[in-house]
Amino acid sequence: MSNPYFESAKRTFIIEAKALQETIGALSESDFIKACDLLLHCKGRIIVSGIGKSGHIARKIASTLTSTGTPAIFLHPTEAAHGDIGLISRDDILLILSKSGESDELASIIDTAIPIIAITSNPSSRLGKAAKKSGGIVLQTTIKEEACPHDLAPTSSTTAQLVIGDALAIALLEARKFTSNDFAKLHPGGALGRKLTMKVADLMVTDDRVPRTKSDSTLTSIMEEISDKRLGAACVVGDKGELIGIITDGDLRRYFQSHGQIDVRKVIAKDLFSKNPKTTTADTLAIDALHHMEDTLPKVMQLPVLGERNTVIGMIHLHDIVKAGIS
Q1: Terminal Cα-to-Cα distance of the chain (whole angstroms)
Q2: What CATH number is associated with residue 80?
């Protein structure tokens, strides 16, 4: 027997997905292009507004626009009627969300003499008419049914508003050639900021903490170096500190498994190390170093960090990247 909670959830997904299909099917290509052109060439800010549930969606759209290179701000229509309308300048553009387009609270905003982009299911509403009169545009959401069984609580309609807002933001992002580096400048904090800004240099071990050995080092000294530095590997370096190879815990295990009875006193580094190991540089993003490790087969746990003339200047371990909250 199906659980009523899950049946309700599936019904909600189906209804809202259908609403999105209907909206994209009815959305005018020329109207969307005009809306993007207006926003792209706006000399001021995008003032995003809405009341009730549409207001919550408007806040999110304003945030998404701002974080992707299009300066935007949310303006509460009620606060606008009590003085905040003064923040609107002649160089701004209004982006207003309302399912009905008839909300009384929007009256003070839609009377302003700047272009309005309206996201509404009713192009003939006061909001729709104001948008056309202002030289703006109407982006119509085609909503035949809310997911609410009473067809009352805004669900499908707010989902459609949100997706249109996201579509505008991404279209503008691509038009501006907004890069991941641009994104990083606007997101310096939290896990996202770390992923976009933290480099190998911020996490790698350096100096005496880097496990190093020479090609003629004995097995005992190699194992001591790996154990003492606790990175699961040792870089095999030449006389000038250049990388020759790497010896990992795995290399040691595989060597002993494949050689059977051996005199460990005769084993030296050149018998063990892997040539041409995966490496990285100090200015590489930590997330890229992580992907480099994970994409290697078999997967590696550490990367030597190389400087000029192939010299080993550090080592970074997968665990340190993950511990930093990057994954």
Answers
A1: 39
A2: 3.40.50.10490
Q: E-strand spans in 227-301?
A: 233-237, 243-248, 274-275, 280-281
Whether residues 34 and 83 share a domain: the answer is yes
Q: Are residues 262 and 308 in the same domain?
A: yes
Q: pLDDT truncated to tens, each residue of the chain (327 aa)? A: 679 999 999 999 999 999 999 999 989 999 999 999 999 999 999 999 999 999 999 999 999 999 888 999 999 999 988 888 888 999 999 999 999 999 999 988 988 779 999 999 999 999 999 999 999 999 999 888 999 888 888 999 999 999 999 999 999 999 999 877 677 666 666 666 667 678 999 999 999 999 999 999 998 899 999 999 999 999 999 999 999 999 988 888 888 787 777 777 788 888 888 888 999 999 999 889 998 888 877 788 999 999 999 999 999 999 998 888 887
Pick from 118, 143, 178: which residue ends a domain? 178
Classify residue 188: in a domain, yes or no.
no
| CATH assignment of the domain containing 319 | 3.10.580.10
Handedness of CA 281, 221, 259, 257 (dihedral sign): negative
Burial of 253 (0-12, 13-18, 19+ CB in 10 A): exposed
3-state secondary structure of 196: helix
Whether residue 92 contacts residue 46, with contact meaning beta carbons closer than 8 Å, is answered with yes
Encoded tokens for 98: 């309302």
Give the domain extent around 268. 200-323
Q: Which tokens sit at 327?
A: 């994954």
220 and 279 both lie in a single domain: yes
d(CA 12, CA 179): 35
Please name which of 235, 314, 310, 300 lies closest in space to residue 272, comparing C-alpha atoms.
235
Residue 47: closest CA among 14, 8, 79: 79
Sheet holding 93-97, edge to edge: 72-74, 46-50, 93-97, 116-120, 137-140
Structural domains in the chain (count): 2
Note the residue count of the chain.
327
Spatial separation of the C-alpha atoms in residues 134 and 2, rounded to whole Å: 52
